[in-house]
Amino acid sequence: MSVSLLLLCVSVIGAFAFVLGRVRAAALSADGRSSSMHSRHGYHGAYAAIWAVLPALALVCVWSIASPEVIDRLVIKSFPEEVKILPRAELNLSYGMVRSIAHGMRLLTSQELTEVAGGTADLQLLLAQKGVPLAIRPTGYMVDAANKYNGMREISRIVMSVSAILLSLLCATYGLRVIAPRFRARNRVEQVILGALIIASSIAVLTTLGIVVSMLSEAARFFSMVPAGEFFFGTVWDPRFTGAGAQTSGTFGLIPLLAGTIYIGFVAMLFAVPIGLFAAIYMAEYASARVRSIAKPMLEVLAGIPTIVYGFFALVTVGPFLRDISAEINGLMTGSYTSFIEAQSVLTAGFVMGVMLIPYVSSLSDDIIMAVPRSLRDGSLGLGATRSETVKRVLLPAALPGIVGALLMTASRAVGETMIVVLAAGVAARMQFDPFEPMTTVTVKIVNQLTGDLEFTSPQTLVAFALGITLFCLTLCLNVYALYIVRRYREQYE
Is residue 325 part of a domain? Predict the structure, then answer.
């Protein structure tokens, strides 16, 4: 029985337990209503359903995690002695072959398995036909280990299914038996819900901690090979991917990447902030309800477009347009039709990224302006100020801290962008301030350093974690400062 089918069976048992719990609670109540019970009938049913589902679900989770490890150890233990004494890398390679063979054998029919066992069919050829190509011809011990792996896997699945269903039934019976008129089912159910909420809220915190710890540990390995001063203050980025043994080759200067990240983000904000802020002011203060109901959703559609689409738009449309228009301008001014704007440039990436950021600026600023108390608007208009004067002298100063916080959050979004920069600004790590030339960012180099089949043993790959923790700290500082400003604004005007 597959895990999905098993979970479906447990869910069905839980549904039956819920219904039986309600029926039992109704039967135990004096008048058939819940007034004589401590908790409503639904809480009793939910309590029985929780007992039917949660223990079985916990068993499935633990079994699914532990079973593969146990099977791996037992299968490797069955290898011949001359294989078990091989180096760890070769032993893992052999076991990977066994798992590939086992996966392919599950795709073969019983007749094909019989032909393989009888020696009348080539197992490697059959597996290749099933889409499981093998690098080497499987040996006898590999086939035996694959059969053992499949057998133990099937036994484990059967035992897990039977155990989970029996546990679900037993726990459902217990949940039904404890139902009584004064049983505090509501309190128990609410405790379970509270625990689920705590677990759900802890996942984000634990995930963040896991990311930070993993990045810090790998970054520490990088800084054990490359001095931190050379990384943080270096002005040349040239990692030089070379062969094995080149552990100290390459130059890992962060300054060109950091300069490109800040420069492209700054150009993007130059395009996004005025347009987004003016759009927010128009929708909040000037647009009618009908226009606002149409314009605001249409503007926010931009936020739902994948960034790779913006990248293609920059590569195919914006970049060539800027290159051609600059060539025309240069031709009219000097007579030489040479473009002074490259198709991949800071300007191209910044412009397209700015278009992507417009809905972020507009939506956040619109919500902040709408949150300004209505009394400030009415008081300004009542004193004879025009609507534009009210916006300029009352609403914007009142909403300024929140708007600044929104802009900082938008800037952190710009700093982490990757696909637009790859396609619109190139991958050249350069120290220059010409917006018409290509540059690159930290995120692009993280992708470059981790592309391909690489081992995390050299500074050329470990530098990605140092770049990642640097970018994490940069965006964290922006977000923390933005939250500080927003909270200060809320304390002032609530």
Answer: yes
Residue 32 clears pLDDT 60, i.e. is over it: no
Each residue's pLDDT tens digit, 353-406? 999 999 888 988 888 888 888 888 888 888 888 888 888 888 888 888 888 888
Q: Average pLDDT for residues 337-363, to the nearest whole number? A: 86
Residue with the larger pLDDT of the pair 90 and 225: 225
Residue 432 lies in a domain: yes
Number of domains in the chain: 2
Tell how many helices (H) and how many strands (E) occur in the chain. Answer: 20, 2
Count how many Cα atoms sit within 13 Å of the Cα of residue 112 in the half-sphere of its side chain.
Answer: 14
For 464, phi then psi, to 5°, come to -60, -35
CA 189 to CA 339: how far, in whole Å? Answer: 70
B/e letters for 140-170, b = 16+ CB within 10 Å, e = fewer, are eebbebbbbbbebbeebbeebbeebbebbbe
Give phi and psi for 137, each to the nearest 5.
Answer: -75, 130
State the CB neighbour count (10 A cutoff) for residue 49: 24
Residues 287 and 381 in one domain: yes
One domain, residues 287 and 433: yes
Please list, in sequence order, all residues whose beta carbon lies within 8 angstroms of the beta carbon of residue 16, skipping any fewer than 6 positions away.
52, 172
**168 and 252 co-located in one domain:** no
Domain end point (choices 166, 183, 200): 183
- Judge contact between 342 and 439, C-beta under 8 A: no
- Is the pTM higher than 0.90? The answer reads no
**Which residue's structure tokens are 């099977």?**
71
Domain boundary among 137, 168, 183: 183
Exposure b/e, 343-354, CB count within 10 A at least 16 = b:
bbbbbbbbbbbb
CA distance linking residue 449 with residue 241, whole number of Å: 9
Is 219 a domain residue?
Answer: no
Length of the chain in residues, anyone?
Answer: 494
| CA nearest to 104, candidates 167, 149, 38, 40 | 149
Q: Is 60 exceeded by the pLDDT of residue 241? A: no
Residue of 371, 323, 330 lying closest to 351 (CA atoms): 323
Q: Confirm whether 203 is domain-assigned.
A: no
Q: What are phi and psi of 492, to 5 degrees?
A: -80, -35
Q: Say if residue 156 is in the same domain as residue 249.
A: no
Q: Is residue 412 within 8 Å of residue 471, measured between CB atoms?
A: no
The conformation of residue 238, written as its DSSP 8-state character, comes to E
**H-type helices in 245-373, by residue range?**
255-281, 289-300, 307-313, 319-334, 346-370
How far apart are the C-alpha atoms of 470 and 464, rounded to whole Å? 10
- Domain range spanning residue 343? 237-493
State whether 150 and 39 are in the same domain.
Answer: yes
* Same-domain status, 179 and 247: no
